[in-house]
Amino acid sequence: MLYQKIPSGRFWIMPNDFFEKYKLNSRDFMVYCFLVSKKEKSYWSIKRMAEQCNMSYESVRRAIKSLEDQCLIDVEHCSVNGKKIQIFILCIG
């Protein structure tokens, strides 16, 4: 399991070998932690994630690409009321 949320929802646990299995830099790890802290499906825009993580839009975009490449998240592209959105889905292994 990649992480385990505690029932209170106030924190989550990561296995000890997480950093050995996944090669995340600090940027990728920050975005991953942000997504895990929300819920299994996240509808946050990259712009809003960048604001919340105090990062640039481009840094968040690169982090999402890295997380997707390492199969830590899936990204679905869809349209709502004619507006294109991305849905970030955590991969729970």
Secondary-structure blueprint of this entry?
Layout: E1 4-5, E2 12-13, H1 18-21, H2 26-38, E3 41-42, H3 46-53, H4 57-69, E4 73-80, E5 83-90
Antiparallel strand pairs: 1-2, 3-5, 4-5
Helix pairs in contact: 2-4, 3-4
Q: Could you say which structural class the secondary elements and strand pairing correspond to? A: alpha+beta
Question: How are the strands of the biggest sheet laid out side by side?
Answer: 3-5-4
Query: Helicity, in percent?
Result: 40-55%
Beta content: 15-25%
- Strand segment tally: 5
Let me know the average pLDDT.
82
The 3D shape can be described as globular
Separation, N- and C-terminal Cα atoms = 5 Å
Helical stretch tally: 4
Largest sheet: 3 strands, antiparallel
Can you write the helix and strand succession as a string? EEHHEHHEE
| Low-pLDDT ranges | none
**Computed Rg:** 13 Å
Question: Any key phrases for this structure?
Answer:
93 residues, alpha+beta, three-stranded antiparallel sheet, 24% strand, globular
Structural description of this entry:
With 93 residues, the chain is α+β, with helices and mostly antiparallel strands. It is 41% helix and 24% strand. The protein is built from four helices and five strands; from the N terminus they run ββααβααββ. It has helices at residues 18-21, 26-38, 46-53, 57-69, and strands spanning 4-5, 12-13, 41-42, 73-80, 83-90. The strands form two sheets. Strands 3-5-4 form a three-stranded antiparallel β-sheet. A hairpin with a 6-residue loop joins strand 1 (4-5) and strand 2. Helix 2 packs across helix 4. The longest helix has 13 residues, at 26-38. The radius of gyration is 13 Å and the shape is globular. It starts with a strand and ends with a strand. The mean pLDDT is 82.
